[in-house]
Automatic annotation (TrEMBL):
Transmembrane segments: 21-41, 53-75, 82-100, 106-131, 143-164, 170-191, 203-222, 242-263, 275-296, 302-321, 333-354, 360-381
Top-level taxonomy: Bacteria, Pseudomonadati, Pseudomonadota, Gammaproteobacteria, Pseudomonadales
Protein topology in the membrane: Multi-pass membrane protein
Protein name (record): MFS transporter
Coiled coil: none
Length: 383
């Protein structure tokens, strides 16, 4: 039986808003906690660079495969069951990722961990769209801001636990304990329903959903480039010491988090169309600055501008896909989220391919053109 009949009788309020923020925190916290475990897994299983690449590809593959199913299940069972189920799957996989020592077992764990991440990512965005609609005011940036906060605390917390001498498995169990406590706190006020109407299990994005998905792809492509290539660029092109090269992504992530936490007020004041326009221009200018000025402080400033510019574009896009009527949300939101994830997956390889044929600066410069396209597309977004 569809849960759509429940939708008309329930109206999410403040407690549902808090639970939505917690769901975003859980996703960011658990995802980032895996990052410090990657080199340990590589050493434990004695993986080559190619095998590690295959392993990391499994994370994105599991996520993308799970997203359409999660959208369908949200419509049938409600957001609460999907978010809680995905969180439990994530908690089961993290200790395995911290202890498995063979490639087949690691691949299986990463695929299931990725499936849990994809499912919660899709379900929490469906819930966010419904909660934001009920509130009558912009809330999406704040929700995504909690994902960023969770990411900072997840990576920092796992790193700190390992630095204190905890085994990877014990550190992972500490992360699991925090995650389960957050799930228990959030669960009572997660939405017991999902989308207004059922949609197909899988649907090819079309119309405005395809357009929004393409914009989402570009922004996530930029984020993936910052994650994987900012440190390489600082070391190889700007002569920065490798020990400090992580400052590039730190500058990007910091301004992105601040931008999202303050973004709801900005969107309410100027509207989503202008946020997309000026955000795209800001990000393009930051990338241009990092490439044009041959000094690492300029690159750091450029990365900070990229983070600030990109911070609220994706939340605005999710609000926009929640308004469209071309496709059911149970299909539209997973489709757009999948395109975004594809950007993160394709981004590093795309930059590497272009850099191999020309230079890293030229490869990153391609992103400037794409970000200007995003900025120009802002005019087509309703406020």
């Amino acid at each position: 039986m569809s849960s759509s009949s429940t939708f008309a009788t329930a109206s999410p309020g403040r407690q549902a808003q808090i639970s939505t923020r917690i769901a975003f925190f859980i996703a960011g916290f658990a995802m980032a906690a895996w990052a410090p475990l990657v080199p340990l897994a590589k050493a434990r299983a004695q993986l080559s660079e190619g095998s590690l690449g295959l392993l990391l590809l499994g994370l994105g593959a599991g996520s993308i495969l799970a997203m359409p199913l999660a959208g369908y299940l949200c419509a049938r069972w409600g957001c609460r069951r999907v978010i809680v189920g995905a969180s439990v799957l994530i908690c089961l996989m993290l200790p395995l990722l911290a202890s498995a020592s063979t490639l087949p077992l690691l691949i299986a764990a990463v695929l299931l961990f990725g499936a849990g991440m994809g499912a919660i990512d899709c379900a929490m965005n469906i819930q966010a769209v419904l909660v934001e609609k009920a509130s009558g005011r912009p809330m999406m940036s704040g929700f995504h801001g909690l994902f960023s906060v969770g990411g900072i605390l997840g990576a920092g917390g796992m790193t700190a636990l390992l630095a204190l001498g905890l085994t990877p498995t014990l550190a992972a169990l500490c992360v699991v304990a925090v995650t389960l406590a957050a799930v228990i706190k959030a669960a009572p006020n997660l939405l017991p329903y999902g989308n207004e109407s059922d949609g197909p299990l899988f649907a090819v994005p079309r119309g405005i959903v395809l357009f929004l998905g393409a914009l989402c792809f570009i922004v996530f492509l930029t984020e993936g480039a910052m994650l994987d290539w900012s440190a390489v660029f600082l070391v190889s092109e700007r002569g920065m010491e490798p020990a400090y090269a992580g400052l590039g992504y730190a500058a990007f992530a910091t301004t992105m988090t601040i931008g999202r936490l303050t973004g709801d007020a900005i969107v309410a004041r100027v509207g989503g169309a202008r946020v997309t326009l000026f955000g795209g221009l800001c990000a393009a200018a930051g990338l241009a600055l990092s490439l044009a000025v041959p000094a690492w402080p300029a690159a750091l400033l450029g990365y900070a501008l990229i983070g600030a510019g990109c911070s609220n574009i994706v939340p605005v896009l999710f609000t926009a896909v929640g308004r469209q009527t071309t496709m059911p949300q149970s299909a539209a939101i997973p489709a757009m989220t999948s395109l975004g994830y594809a950007g993160i997956l394709v981004g590093p390889a795309f930059i590497g391919f272009v850099a191999h044929g020309s230079s890293l600066s030229i490869a990153l410069g391609v992103l400037i053109v794409l970000l200007l396209f995003v900025a120009a597309s802002g005019r087509y977004l309703r406020n």
